[in-house]
């Protein structure tokens, strides 16, 4: 299951993503927002991060205007590896190399068609489990935990 969250600036793109996931038969849970009324993106980053960390969701997708703020907010949660992605190469790389568990997109930055291609690539790409990539993830995790 994919946890979804956005702010008002990401609402239109998230609506497109939800339709796309539904057409593909991908299960998701929408944590909001549910309109274009102004809201604070950290609230939705927290909901998605919590769902991923608890195991309620396998992965998460977040959208705000630039993708920057919501990705920073999500990355404040230990265990979240949220990648802000604006191209297909990065979508593939962040799963293959970094085992990202949350994807962030900028609704003002990427067009609908390109965003859906990014989502498809990100969801379809497995983590490589190569030793060098796992070692780097472990290093990041130990830095975050202060080890």
Q: Report helical residue fraction.
A: 40-55%
Task: List low-pLDDT spans.
Answer: none
β-strand amount: 5-15%
Order of helices and strands: EHEHEHEHEHH
The total of beta strands comes to 5
CATH superfamily: Sugar-phosphate isomerase, RpiB/LacA/LacB
Sum up the overall morphology in one term.
Answer: globular
Write the layout of secondary structure elements.
Elements: E1 2-6, H1 11-24, E2 28-30, H2 41-54, E3 59-64, H3 68-74, E4 82-84, H4 88-96, E5 102-106, H5 112-124, H6 131-144
Parallel strand pairs: 1-2, 1-3, 3-5, 4-5
Protein described:
The protein is of the alpha/beta class. The protein has a single domain (2-144), classed as Ribose 5-phosphate Isomerase B, Chain: A (3-Layer(aba) Sandwich). The chain is built from six helices and five strands. The longest helix has 14 residues, at 11-24.
What's the quick description here?
The protein has a 5-stranded parallel beta sheet with strand order 2-1-3-5-4, with helices on both faces.
Features:
five-stranded parallel sheet; single chain; globular; Ribose 5-phosphate Isomerase B, Chain: A; 6 helices; alpha/beta; 147 residues
């Amino acid at each position: 299951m994919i946890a979804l969250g956005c702010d008002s600036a990401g609402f239109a793109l998230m609506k497109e993503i939800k339709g796309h996931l539904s057409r593909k038969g991908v299960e998701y849970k929408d944590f909001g927002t549910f309109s274009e009324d102004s809201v604070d993106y950290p609230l939705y980053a927290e909901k998605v991060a919590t769902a991923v960390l608890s195991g309620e969701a396998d992965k998460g997708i977040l959208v705000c205007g630039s993708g920057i703020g919501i990705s920073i907010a999500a990355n404040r949660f230990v265990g979240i590896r949220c990648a802000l992605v604006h191209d297909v190469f990065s979508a593939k790389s962040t799963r293959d190399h970094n085992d990202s568990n949350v994807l962030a997109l900028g609704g003002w930055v990427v067009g609908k068609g390109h965003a859906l291609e990014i989502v498809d690539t990100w969801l379809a790409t497995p983590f490589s489990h190569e030793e060098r990539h796992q070692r780097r993830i472990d290093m990041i995790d130990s830095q975050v935990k202060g080890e």
